[in-house]
Specification:
heterodimer; A: 433 residues; alpha/beta; Rossmann fold; GMP Synthetase, Chain A, domain 3; 2 domains; 9-stranded mixed beta sheet; 11 helices; 21 strands; B: 143 residues; alpha+beta; VC0802-like; Alpha-Beta Plaits; 7-stranded antiparallel beta sheet; 5 helices
């Protein structure tokens, strides 16, 4: 089903009018309500009156993650804290965390887009959903919760962790939908087998997986393991949390809800719009948010965008799966390396699951070294050293052919690579300091 | 007659071999023969035990990667040239040994040699024809 047929199937020219009106309104609202943004717009030499339509969006200044951190906690809010209904915080690995605030209307917006997302993934009202995203300061759990409530799903607010209990709930209550991170989903499969459950016989038919980038081969693995339709959901707390974009059942890109989150894809170097189909950094402007509306927020996620109408009937543009993050990217000997590239290679080699970690190091006076740790799986294990050495070499060769640099591959024992029940830790950079 | 060997993947880290052995000890599984093959970063522990199925189950439960491989154990005189006499048979009959290890039995005057062949059935035929004594499942418990 299509949750909001009017907005999700509207013709582009009509949508353009709505976006134009909303952008004008947003810019003048922000200019009035947020002193920091007023300063930013003034510095750019743009007054609200200069924005006559959505085509003027490129006159607006970008907003970066640093803008949010530097104005910690509430500097970029357009409403005083007492008008804010809910606050979420995303942990930062460096510096201040990112704080976002929702007015009551923003929460309604969040519920609406998440309901659209679940419907897009194939959920129907009265379906039962197991929400295994973390509840709390992280936006995943509560965002999914609001959308499920809006849609009229039966909610199991399981939150993340306590995997045995999750699996027992699944087995006993028979929810049709699972919402969690893709790495947690795979982790649960290992636990299920240990408990003597067959993942293929799970009650879950649809998975709404997000909060971390994942690849097409990982989707295949999840779908084969759990016998489930695995869909990708995209979001980030700065924009709203989950519910910015979602794949439909055709799984050909994520529909971005552009009546409320206006997407641009830019070339990271020139900061100009990338050509249609070209990859670049996703930039989003919120068109109706009130608590912390953001102009041209640089998501640091690398995507391409397509404006072709989808077979599902929606006219919303579709972004590709996240190809990488500008800040996940590591530069090894001048080469840009995304963990997703390594994941792709590993999954292409029969039998290897994507439990891996990249370790970058630079010994004094030496070049950067990239080491790839790969957990040995039962099905690839051999009693002969030479077979395992050949496997290491094969992985190294294939990575080298993709990246163009030599990597060292090291096989490690199962479950020794750090994996939290939330996001998988894919990169360890030892070069700093 | 073929026997089974347990192979376990081990990283070259302190205490890993100890963990495997103490785990098996606790479960009253007796290790009859053992060898470690190693590369720079990892090793493969190979063992002949009295209850291989149980041993693999116990190890897997603790998160080790382990599998079972067919091997052939033969008995030779524990004196100079004992091993060579067996190897001569393999060489003459074009039998390829992937790897092997040996141990000396306590009470008899025999040495036990464990072989991993690429073609175990052929090896067994040749050994039998040459009247080299192959150790069976029952014997391994009694050694």
């Amino acid at each position: 089903m299509i949750w909001n047929e009017k907005m999700e199937c509207m013709e582009a020219d009509q949508m353009n009018q709505i976006q134009s009106a909303r952008l004008k309104e947003t810019v003048s609202y922000i200019y009035k309500s947020c002193p920091l943004y007023k300063k930013k717009l003034d510095a750019q030499g743009v007054a609200p009156g200069d924005i006559r339509g959505i085509e003027d969006i490129s006159r607006l200044p970008f907003t970066s993650k640093d803008d949010l951190r530097d104005s910690y906690p509430f500097g970029l809010f357009s409403q005083p804290p007492k008008e804010i209904a809910e606050i979420h915080v995303s942990s930062g690995t460096t510096g201040n965390p990112t704080v976002v605030g929702y007015t009551k209307d923003d929460i309604r917006l969040w519920s609406e887009v998440m309901a659209r997302a679940f419907a897009c993934a194939g959920a129907m009202p009265k379906d039962m959903i197991q929400i295994a995203y973390g509840y709390g300061l992280f936006t995943g759990g509560l965002g999914a919760h609001y959308g499920a409530l809006e849609m009229g799903l039966t909610i199991i607010p399981a939150s993340s962790g306590q995997t045995k209990r999750q699996l027992k709930i699944m087995h006993d209550f028979k929810p049709r939908i699972l919402a969690c991170t893709p790495s947690y989903c795979l982790y649960m499969a290992e636990e299920a087998r240990e408990m003597g459950l067959d993942p293929k016989k799970s009650s879950w038919e649809i998975g709404v997986f997000g909060a971390e980038p994942w690849s097409e081969p990982m989707r295949k693995e999840i779908e084969a393991t759990w016998n489930i339709l695995a869909t990708d959901i995209y979001g980030l707390s700065e924009i709203i949390g989950p519910g910015v974009a979602q794949e439909c059942t055709f799984k050909k890109g994520l529909h971005i809800f552009w009546d409320v989150f206006y997407p641009e894809v830019i070339n990271q170097r020139t900061l100009k719009h990338a050509k249609d189909g070209e990859t670049g950094e996703l930039v989003i402007t919120t068109l109706t948010k009130r608590g912390i509306p953001l102009l041209r927020y640089r998501t640091r996620d690398i995507v391409s965008i397509s404006y072709e109408r989808c077979r599902c009937g929606r006219s919303t543009p579709r972004i590709s799966k996240i190809q990488g993050r500008t800040d996940d990217m590591i530069i090894v000997r001048g080469i840009n390396v995304f963990p997703s590239q390594i994941e792709h290679v590993l999954l292409g080699i029969e039998g290897t699951k994507p439990h891996y970690q990249l370790v970058v190091d630079r010994k004094a006076g030496k070049l950067d070294e990239l080491e790839v740790l790969v957990e040995v799986e039962q099905k690839i294990f051999s009693d002969e050293i030479k077979q395992l050495r050949m496997l290491e070499e094969k992985i190294a060769r294939e990575i080298e052919s993709v990246l163009g640099i030599f990597v060292k591959v090291k096989l490690v024992e199962p479950k020794t690579i750090e994996r939290s029940e939330g996001k998988a830790k894919r990169v360890v950079d030892k070069r700093a300091g | 007659m073929k026997l089974v060997q347990i192979s376990v993947f081990l990283e070259n880290k302190k205490g890993r071999l100890f963990e495997v052995c103490s785990l098996l000890g606790k479960e009253k599984i007796n290790i009859r023969a053992l060898s470690v093959a190693e590369s720079e970063e990892f090793g493969i522990l190979r063992m002949v035990v009295d209850n291989p199925a149980k041993a693999v189950a116990v190890l897997k439960k603790k998160g080790f990667v382990a599998n079972l491989t067919d091997i052939v154990a033969v008995e030779v005189e524990d004196n100079p040239g004992g091993l060579a006499s067996v190897l001569a048979v393999f060489s003459k009959n074009d039998i390829n040994v992937e790897y092997m290890y040996g141990f000396v039995e306590k009470f008899s005057q025999k040495a036990i040699l464990v072989f991993r062949f690429d073609d175990a059935d052929k090896a067994i035929r040749v050994l039998t024809r040459n009247k080299i004594s192959i150790i069976g499942k029952k014997d391994i418990g009694n050694l």
